[in-house]
Amino acid sequence: MIKASVKKGQLGLSLVELLVVMIIGLFITIGISSVYVGNKRSSMTTNELSLLQANGRDVLQQLTQVIQHTGYKSTRSPLDQDMFILGPVTNSMCADGSDSVANTGLFDVTQNDTGNGDTIGVVYLGDNLLTTDCTGTQIRTDCALSLTNSAPEAAAKIYNYFSADTNAQGVPVLTCSGSLSAAAVEVAEGVENLQFSYGEDADGNGVPDRFVSSDEVSNWGSIVSINVAVLVRSLRPVAPIASQRDYQLLDDVVITTNDKFLRAVFTTTIRLRNATS
User: Fold this and answer.
1) Domain-by-domain residue ranges, the chain?
2) Which whole-number Å values give the CA distances from 74 to 133, 141, 147, 217, 270, in the listed order?
């Protein structure tokens, strides 16, 4: 009698085989997670860097658009030493009896090396060609200079004051106060520090002979251009660990940081087109 042989099939994995499979799966998971985290961090860094660059360009553009008008005299009135805010801002009465400045308490004198760098206050006259302050608010017709307007020249002065500050959320911002501002207005995010140096034209040829801080200006009426340096920070921390970095703003200012944020310095020179005209 012949007995048939029966093969037993595999009933499952042994404990050793199961452990090996689990370890291999763990390594694969760790690898995939590392790639995902790396890609995510790289994407976030790229986005923050792009936003940082856009913010920096926007800040310089906004500062240039306002500061280049410093000393604009309209068709009849010189400003000379009054091109910059060097003392208290006073109110004047427009032709309709209204105040020319909404809140004089918003303005301070142009300063060097405050907590967030320098501040700057510039003045120009409003007429039918130049009608807005740094917030984009348009001055009233009864305050502007015109052939038919009986308002005094003082009422036509448009005041603009820029400074770097921190908002209620702890984000560094560029603020501006204008003639018709009820409060300081945030005009850009990420601005940690501002630095200005002033180009004095000693011989009257329209070319600056030296650049100095606001503390060293000998004649504010001879300023023909302004160097600007802005330190802009990313809105979110990006680096995996905090690191110390130094940032050079203009010639004599170095800002040292130690955190996870991206930063960049943006510079430009603004010519005061009306200072010598």
Assistant:
1) 38-271
2) 15, 14, 11, 25, 20
